[in-house]
């Protein structure tokens, strides 16, 4: 099956580890050239060395909370590879408290990274994507659809990312640019592993991942590769008629339609 990645160029933020790195690996194996982006150079060097076994990979050390950094990332990509076809906005983290606990600074920092970081990157990428069309995938979260108590500000940032994705897809479709979001549920990550080791260090990962308390219909926490599979599909030619969607990757745990 041809995913159409040969000759394509992708920029993936937050790609030194986790879902971002796994997505980069899948795309490189399918023939894409990938620019890795993160704030820590040591992890980026490790990722580049590992992924270069499969194809062309480079990296940029940058913080997407800065306008100049977003422009620099795209400039470096164009200088290195000559084009841009795919942007995966994956930079972010989890920060959740009750409304009364959150300072204005907390709100500003969360929105600046998760929402405006994607805006900055998309703005910088747009002139190049318009040349031949392409794909943007924004990573958000399932809880952005149904925010529980004490989930602020992250669920607000993610809900805003979903709304932005839908609006962008309407505006950019005329350029054959598809924009989608994947809504992440419980997926194995550094944060989830820390929780596992704190809550149940006596259990192996498979045992912990299958605990009933996670309330996942498929019965387990997901793997990073399973999230990357969906992102890789959405950025591929196989998803050429998919745009404006918010797709859950959560084992069926979400409650929204």
Written overview of the protein:
- Keywords: Oxidoreductase.
- Catalyzes the irreversible reduction of 2,3-butanediol to (S)-acetoin in the presence of NADH.
- It catalyses: (S)-acetoin + NAD(+) = diacetyl + NADH + H(+).
- Its EC number is 1.1.1.304.
- With 257 residues, the protein is of the alpha/beta class.
- The chain folds into two domains: 9-187 and 224-242, 3-Layer(aba) Sandwich (Rossmann fold), CATH 3.40.50.720; 188-221, no CATH class.
- 42% of the residues lie in helices and 17% in strands.
- The protein contains nine helices and nine strands.
- α3 (67-81) runs parallel beside α5 (116-129).
Main attributes?
EC 1.1.1.304; 257 residues; 7-stranded parallel β-sheet; alpha/beta; 17% strand; single chain; 2 domains; diacetyl reductase ((S)-acetoin forming) (NAD+) activity; Rossmann fold; 9 strands; two-stranded antiparallel sheet; SDR
Helix/strand layout:
Blueprint: E1 9-13, H1 18-29, E2 33-38, H2 41-51, E3 57-61, H3 67-81, E4 86-89, E5 96-97, H4 104-114, H5 116-129, E6 134-141, E7 152-153, H6 154-172, E8 177-184, H7 190-199, H8 205-209, H9 224-234, E9 246-249
Parallel strand pairs: 1-2, 1-4, 2-3, 4-6, 6-8, 8-9
Antiparallel strand pairs: 5-7
Helix pairs in contact: 1-9, 3-5
